[in-house]
Amino acid sequence: MAAVLLHLLRHGAPETPGLLLGRTDSHPTPAGISACLEQSLGLEIDALVTSDLLRSRRAAEAIAAARSLSVTIDPRWRELDFGDWDGLAPTTIDQAAAAAFYADPEANPPPGGERWSQLVARVAAGIVALDAAATLVVTHGGAMRAALAHLCGLTPAQVWAFDLPYGALLTLRVWPETEPPSAQIVALRP
């Protein structure tokens, strides 16, 4: 059973950082795109996939242009839908509700938003759709955590322990033929 490398790259800084940007689209900064390009240097990849949101897509397009690769746009790699909180600063939402969400995102999803299990299922479907080749996915922090939950069996509390700043690169060795697919963390570069 052959393993393949899966590189998950969080988009660079958006124009307005620090907001709960789930489905809310936001342009990345030029420095954010450059940070993603720099993280991708030296990666041996055969395929490039991105979320459809601009903050990820623009970085993927820049990487694709630098490497003469095509980009597959897949909305399954979007960030968690924060519902009524989407686009807001964390300090402006009810702090008790936010604490409950972070303690148990399945039982306490954002009002009108996506449950943790929905995000994990969506990202898992995106993982299954990948070719069995070294792939770079330009995505979001929540989607990266969902991939860790799906592939490594980690709980929400465990995936929240990972520091995934803008431009962070997480490399996994994935065995796609197992059911469900399994993975081993190879590297994390903030």
Structure description:
Strand 5 and strand 6 form a beta hairpin. The chain has a six-stranded mixed β-sheet with strand order 3-2-4-1-5-6, with helices on both faces. It is built from six helices and six strands. The model has no long low-confidence stretch (mean pLDDT 94). The longest helix is centred in the first third of the chain and has 14 residues, at 54-67. 42% of the residues are buried. It has helices at residues 30-40, 54-67, 95-103, 116-128, 141-152, 156-160, and strands spanning 4-10, 47-50, 72-73, 135-139, 169-175, 182-189. The chain is an alpha/beta fold and 190 residues long.
Corresponding CATH architecture? 3-Layer(aba) Sandwich
CATH class, please? Alpha Beta
Largest sheet: number of strands, sense, barrel closure: 6 strands, mixed
Global morphology: globular
* Poorly predicted residue ranges: none
Major beta sheet, strand line-up: 3-2-4-1-5-6
Alpha-carbon Rg, integer? 16 Å
- Distance separating the two termini: 30 Å
Total helix count?
6
Counted up, domains total: 1
The portion of residues forming beta strands comes to 15-25%
Mean pLDDT: 94
Helices and strands, in order, run as: EHEHEHHEHHEE
Q: Which fold does the CATH topology refer to?
A: Rossmann fold
> In percent, how helical is the residue content?
25-40%
Oligomerization state of this entry? single chain
Main structural class? alpha/beta
* SS elements, strand count: 6
Say which CATH homologous superfamily is assigned.
Phosphoglycerate mutase-like
